[in-house]
Structures are given as C-alpha cells and as structure tokens.
Design goal:
Blueprint lengths: L27 H11 L4 E3 L2 H11 L8 E2 L2 H10 L19 H8 L6 E5 L5 E12 L2 H9 L7 H9 L3 E9 L15 H11 L5 E6 L6 H11 L4 E6 L11 H15 L5 E3 L11 H13 L4 E4 L14 H4 L6 H4 L2 E4 L4 E3 L4 E3 L11 E3 L2 H9 L11 H10 L15 H8 L25 H14 L2 H14 L8 H27 L13 H17 L31
Parallel strand pairs: 1-3, 6-7, 6-9, 7-8, 9-10
Antiparallel strand pairs: 2-5, 3-4, 4-5, 11-12, 11-13
Helix pairs in contact: 5-6, 9-14, 13-15, 15-16, 18-19
Pfam families: ATP-sulfurylase, PUA_2
Pathway: Sulfur metabolism; hydrogen sulfide biosynthesis; sulfite from sulfate: step 1/3
EC number: 2.7.7.4
C-alpha cells in the first residue's frame, strides 16, 4: 500500500485539497488503547448518517477538515463558501446531536473535553475533542445553504428532523469503520485510489464522476467516453447512501454499472468504487463539494453533468455549472469539465447535446434519469438508445417501488414521464413524423401513450438515419453490387408499368371526343389529356433504376492508372 506523506504528492499530477490528505483512522495498539478509554468517556449516540460522515472525515474524503467545524468556520462556509483561512469549502461540517439523552450529555461538556461518539447499538465509533460549543440556528443554516426554509426541500427537512439546537466543533479520531455490506469488496478509500492511479497504473490524469440515484445510462456514457478521449483514467463513484426510497436500490445500480463497464468500456481505464457520502441536497454547493471529493481521491478532472445534485425546481437549470464562476481554477485545484444535457438524436444517430447537434426536438429522445426510473417501474425496458439493455435489465429488478398502484399510477404522473423522455410525442404523430393537428397535453396522456411512444422509438429510433443512408447510398454506390437487386428490379417494373399506362392513355386521347355525349359515362378530350399529363409526371417521379453501366461516366482519371501506384515519372 502507498505510504502517502505530504511531500510525496509533489510527484503526482494532483494534490489533496488544502495540501494534505487527512488520516484520522486509529490502528493497532493505539486503537486498542483508545477503545478502552472511549468506554470511560461521556457518550453521545449518533445516527448512521453521522457515522458515515465521521468515516469520510477520518479517511481524508473531506480533506483538509479533521473534524466538525467551529463556529467561525461554520459561519464562514455558510456565508462565503470558504473556511476562515480562505480555502474553498462549500458546505458546513456541523455536529448538533438531537435527543433528550444527548442534550443532557452536551450540557455537561466544556471546551477541551473529549466525548465518545457511539452508533445505535452503543459501539464506540470515534472520539471527539471539543474545541467549540455554539448555538445551532436551523433557519440560518437552511437559508444560507439551500436558499430556502421550505420544509418540502429535502435538505431543509433533514435539518429539522436530524439536528439539535447546540453544535459541537472539534477534531475526531476514528475507532471503528462501517462494514459496507455488498459494497465492501468494491470499497476504495482515497489512499487506495492515489496508489492505484499513480503508482500502479501510472496515469497522468484521472477524471472523477459521481452519480446519484440512477442506473448507468447513455448520457453518463457519453460524458465518460468524451473524457476518455484525452484523459488516462476514470473513477466512477455511484453514491450508495441516503437515497430516496423510490429510487433504484444501490446494489442494483452498482451491478448495472459493472455489466456495462465489462461490455462497453476499455479494460483497465475505468475504476468503479461506491461512494458512501451522505446526501446534503445542497444543489450547486453540493456539486462543488463533489468536485473537491474527486480531488481528494486523486482526480485531476471533475466531470459535471447538467443537473448534478439537482433538487427538483429549487435551482436554475444550469446552477451546477454557473456556481464554478465564483472560484478561480487555482483555488479549486481540479479541472472542471461541464457537460450540457445529453439526449439521443435519431437524425444524427448518436448521443449529443445542444452544443453539438442542430436538429429539431422532433428527432430527440431525452435521457431523463427520473423518466428512466419511471419506465422501469412500469415494467418497460427503456429504448437501447438511452439505456444499454445490460444496465436496464438489472436496474429493473432493483427499482422501488415496483409496478403501479391500484389506480394504474406510478410515482410520477405518466404524462410528465412521457414529456421528459419523448418530447416529440406531444406534437408529432410519430418519431420524426408529421405534426398533430392538435397537440396532446400532459394531463391527457395515459399508460397506453407511454407504451405507444416506447414502441415507436424501439421500432424507429435507428430507422430514420438508416433510411437516410439508404437513400444516399442508392445514388452514391458506384459499385452496384452494394445495392439490393430487388430494389432496382422494382424500379424497373414501376417504370415499365407506368410507361404502359402512358401508352394506353395516348391512344385514349386520340380517340376522345372534344365534347362527351354523357359527362357521367364518357370523357372528353380535355379530361383525357389531363390524365395523360399526370401519368407522365408520375413517370418522372419514379426513381431511376441505376445499373453499373449508368456509372461509367463517374470513373475517370487524368493519368494512366498505374502512375497512381508509385512513382509519378512516366515510363518510356
């Protein structure tokens, strides 16, 4: 294992945030001694979210923080997005235990005291040396961190549910780690990734990608593979803690990643490691936090999508991008790559963004994480253009809740799901098709429409570009062996049949009277001539049957062919 010291980082392409990688994990005899002492100290019971945060601090994920913030740092972060020493840090690390028993313990503590932090089964997790005790104003925190005190915001709600009225600041030492269950075999701490990137694989650059509640989809893949064109490695970190109940289960998201990576990603350049980080629901501020976490894992680049850490409609569409305008690149110390919303363009026949694709919405299939989850809930494998089947097949087993309720409804209204994924459906009769006389509304869409839109996309997403190519190749292939014989035969038959129609109509015109004796039974010459004129125009509309000899004129060279093979000197 790599023995990381501060001067060791001088040899690497990256540095930990704040200049040092924090390590507060006690081991060996020191841990044994402190475990004994921890049982003699006052004890505060903490929930799983706090236990996870303690581990993040101790293993360096949140470097340079060595514990929970004192009041000055806490307020500086909320108001300025920085520690008091000027180091960029977007979210406060505060510890305000709740509960009557904990409140009584806190009343007995003073600055300089030590207290044991124990889990819900009363096992010591860490020791906190108290450096500050201060009042915890929930409204103040919510307003500054989230920009709202609305309890419908999940971050705001968490403050009022989980936090007490007094905060403790100070450094921690970790006594016991959390077992990560099915993720333990994939678990990587910062010291592990620095070693893997720069000692084992000899990378010169690594891009980090943190993702939340969704299985791996083609939007993620687009971002990853764009990065792999110029960056040596990828660190992919699906979050596996504190997701909403209606999301896809963590285990299945990880498995969907593994299935796609094994099949579609270059071997040895992508590292998959779960990230057990508590959700803060801080929108753009959380995006900055994730970038710094990637930095502490050794990444030189942070890949940020359009709605990274988004929370409904609480923040602007590209708030997770614009927040980086507040910081100088050297302050962050990691190169941030911002990606616009990815969709699948059926006219381009590829994933794209508005930055690279000029085509109309009628050709687009949107890649919405929420929409994908809702389709899985409906029991529908999303189109291959937005989710690889290897990912969707596993994810559909882990979505919660599964199926529909007694009224055939899912978590999200079906109309909203259709609009988010298939915007064409409300205005076009089919993918790339004609406009509806009257656009459909979100409210009138049903489960039948969701099925119809999916079937249309499955059948036609790759058809649009394929048929365009077929039209171009039909007149572009000078090697006519590349064109289907039956198409040319059909064109020749069409031409021959239409010529037969024209010949008959010419005879009819010759015989037609100038004035018909009975306009319901017979045609006059004027009407017969009009039929002939239309038939001749139809003949012109029929594509020509192109054979090899029709392309002779396209093959010509200014010089004898043999002179193109080597020396340009003419032979005698």
């Amino acid at each position: 294992m790599l023995n990381i010291t501060e001067n060791k980082f001088a040899n690497y392409p990256q540095q930990p945030h704040g200049g040092k990688l924090v390590d507060k994990v006690l081991t060996g005899q020191e841990r044994d001694d402190e475990l004994v002492r921890a049982k003699q100290l006052p004890s505060i019971m903490v929930d799983l979210e706090a236990v996870i945060t303690l581990e993040m601090i101790a293993t360096g994920v949140l470097s340079p923080n060595e514990g929970f913030m004192n009041e000055d740092d806490y307020k500086s972060v909320l108001e300025k997005g920085r520690l008091t020493d000027g180091t960029v840090w977007p979210v406060p690390l505060s510890f305000a235990p709740t509960g009557n028993r904990n409140s009584e313990i806190i009343k007995s503590l003073s600055v300089g005291d030590e207290v044991t932090l124990s889990n819900e089964i009363n096992e010591p997790v860490a020791i906190l040396k108290i450096e500050d005790i201060f009042a915890y104003d929930k409204d103040y925190r919510a307003a500054h961190l989230f920009g709202t005190t609305d309890r419908n915001h999940p971050g705001v709600d968490a403050i009022y549910r989980r936090m007490g009225n007094v905060a403790l600041g100070g450094k921690i030492r970790l006594l016991n780690r959390v077992d990560w269950g099915p993720f333990e075999k994939l678990r990587l701490e910062p010291k592990d990734t620095w070693h893997e990137f720069y000692e084992v694989k000899k990378f010169r650059s690594t891009a980090g990608f943190i993702t939340g509640a969704n299985p791996l989809h083609r939007g993620h893949e687009y971002i990853h593979k764009n990065a792999l064109e110029e960056i040596d490695g990828l660190l992919l970190q699906p979050l596996v803690e504190m997701a909403k109940r209606e999301y896809t289960r963590h285990e299945f998201r990880m498995l969907s990643y593994r299935a796609v990576l094994d099949t579609y990603y270059p071997k040895g350049r992508s590292i998959l490691a779960p990230l057990r980080v508590t959700y803060i629901f801080a929108g753009p501020r959380e995006t900055v936090l994730h970038a710094l976490i990637m930095k502490n894992y050794g990444c030189t680049h942070a890949l940020i999508g359009r709605d990274h850490a988004g929370i409904g409609d609480y923040y602007d569409k590209y708030a997770s991008h614009s927040i980086f305008d507040q910081f100088k690149p050297e302050e962050l110390g990691i190169e941030v790559r911002l990606f616009h919303e990815v969709f699948y363009c059926t006219r381009c026949d590829t994933p794209a963004t508005a930055q690279s694709c000029p085509h109309d919405e009628k050709y687009r299939i949107n890649i919405s994480g929420t929409g994908i989850r809702e389709m899985l809930r409906h029991g529908i494998m999303p189109p291959k253009e937005i989710v690889r089947p290897e990912s969707a097949r596993i994810a559909i087993q882990g979505v919660q809740p599964k199926g529909l309720d007694e009224f055939e409804n899912s978590i999200s209204p079906v109309g909203k799901t259709i609009k988010s994924m298939f915007p064409f459906y409300l205005n076009q009769t089919r993918l790339g098709g004609m406009k509806r006389k009257t656009p459909l509304t979100v409210e009138e869409l049903t489960n039948f429409d969701l099925e119809a839109a999916n079937l249309d996309v499955r059948a036609n997403a790759d058809r649009i570009y394929r048929e365009i190519f077929e039209e171009y190749s039909s007149v572009g292939d000078t090697n006519r062996n590349m064109q289907p014989e039956w198409v040319m035969n059909a064109r020749e038959s069409l031409i021959a049949q239409q010529e037969m129609v024209i010949n008959d109509l010419k005879e009819k015109v010759k015989q037609a009277p100038v004035t018909a004796s009975d306009e319901f039974m017979y045609q006059d010459k004027g009407e017969a001539e009009r039929e002939l004129d239309v038939a001749e125009k139809i003949l012109k509309d029929i594509p020509k049957a192109l054979r090899a000899n029709d392309f002779d004129y396209r093959s010509w060279n200014a010089l004898p062919y043999k002179r193109y093979r080597g020396s340009d000197e003419p032979t005698e």
